[in-house]
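We were asked to recover a plausible sequence for a given structure. The inputs and outputs are reproduced exactly as logged, with field labels preserved.

PROBLEM: sequence recovery
POSITIONS: 390
GIVEN STRUCTURE:
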């Protein structure tokens, strides 16, 4: 300000070299790139693939993996190209036999009523799609024409089988069924049976079941080996627990899947402060099963970053019994409530059991204090006047 008024020359004014006035002083830390998005898409870009020919060795899978505009373009061009190719063959046969300009007393044509390339193209369509209008037909005059007829029928059947199968597989892809398999937006860590547990909720919106449904969970983080090797995506499998035991689940109603954080868990040293500081951590959840109506195996995926894990909270109940049946309120699917939870790692909780005892004692005193305060407020207050004493 003094330099702007001209009191002190600018060359004597000290400026902050590491600070730009146009930029904010405090910058938010960039969020970690996801390995798996919330919708289940893998965030991986494949670059510099030299052996592109490997994709052509499996043409059917390549066609199914293409986007719909490209698939429809290939579907249309495959039929048009085959019709044009065989139309050229029929036109050449008619031209070589002299059927395009028939003369008096000429021999019987190879294909009747072919006088131009347009008529040869129409005959090619009639042969391949077996329309048969009746105006054009192959005669016994040319054995080569009979051979071309057989080859075109075989090629047409192959194109129909491949392209129609591709369209069917694209419309009945397994990930379409996964759109109705939902996960809670946040995961929670709270006490269950006296142990810290990582919990999430999963549900199915359709009435048709997922047969042999299994669920798996992995922790993905950047690690460095003792030899100095940097592993950017180190994957560690961790066991999941549910009400029926094991990884298999009976997904009729929404379930809370939990993982006990014990000494064998990669979350054993995870503290609440690590979640607030955006630790380099991502937990991937994979639900897999067979669709009851189609028999196709489907897979639903999601992931949770460190800032999407809520410490000291628990999911609210959403299943209730009404009129002799169980009803599910999906409006509360991701709702959570705060519960007493120790603000320490699972390792510290195992080493110092007094933390859990103190938390249990405090949670037991809480309702008693509330009840005593409510009773004190409800008691009537009596006042004694001087007249009553006299």
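RECOVERED SEQUENCE:
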């Amino acid at each position: 300000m003094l330099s702007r008024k001209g009191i002190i020359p600018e060359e004597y004014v000290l400026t902050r070299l590491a600070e730009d006035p146009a930029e904010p002083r405090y910058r938010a830390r960039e969020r970690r790139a996801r390995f798996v998005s919330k919708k289940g898409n893998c965030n991986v870009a494949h670059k510099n693939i030299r052996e592109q020919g490997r994709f052509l060795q499996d043409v059917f899978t390549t066609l199914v993996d293409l986007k719909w505009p490209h698939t429809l373009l290939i579907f249309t061009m495959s039929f048009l190209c085959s019709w044009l190719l065989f139309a050229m063959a029929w036109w050449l046969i008619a031209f070589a036999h002299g059927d395009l300009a028939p003369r008096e007393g000429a021999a019987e044509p190879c294909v009747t009523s072919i006088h131009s390339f347009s008529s040869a193209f129409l005959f090619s369509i009639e042969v391949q799609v077996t329309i048969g209008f009746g105006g054009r037909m192959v005669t016994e005059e040319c054995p080569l024409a009979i051979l071309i007829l057989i080859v075109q029928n075989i090629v047409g059947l192959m194109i129909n089988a491949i392209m129609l199968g591709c369209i069917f597989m694209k419309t009945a892809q397994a990930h379409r069924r996964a759109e109705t398999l939902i996960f809670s937006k946040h995961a929670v860590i709270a006490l269950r049976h006296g142990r810290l547990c990582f919990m999430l909720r999963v549900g199915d919106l359709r009435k048709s079941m997922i047969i042999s449904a299994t669920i798996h969970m992995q922790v993905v983080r950047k690690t460095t080996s003792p030899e100095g090797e940097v592993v950017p995506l180190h994957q560690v499998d961790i066991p999941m627990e549910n009400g029926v035991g094991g990884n298999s689940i009976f997904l009729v109603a929404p379930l809370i899947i939990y993982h006990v954080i014990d000494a064998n868990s990669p979350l054993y040293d995870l503290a609440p402060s690590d979640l607030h500081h955006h630790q380099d951590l991502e937990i991937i959840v994979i639900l897999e099963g067979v669709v009851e109506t189609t028999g196709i195996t489907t897979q639903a995926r999601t992931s949770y970053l460190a800032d999407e894990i809520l410490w000291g909270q628990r999911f609210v109940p959403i299943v209730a019994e009404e009129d002799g049946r169980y009803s599910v309120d999906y409006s509360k699917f991701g709702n959570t409530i705060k519960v007493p939870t120790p603000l320490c790692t699972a390792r510290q909780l195992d080493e110092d059991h007094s933390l859990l005892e103190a938390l249990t004692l405090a949670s037991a005193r809480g309702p008693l204090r509330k009840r005593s305060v409510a009773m004190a407020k409800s008691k009537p207050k009596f006042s004694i006047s001087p007249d009553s004493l006299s």
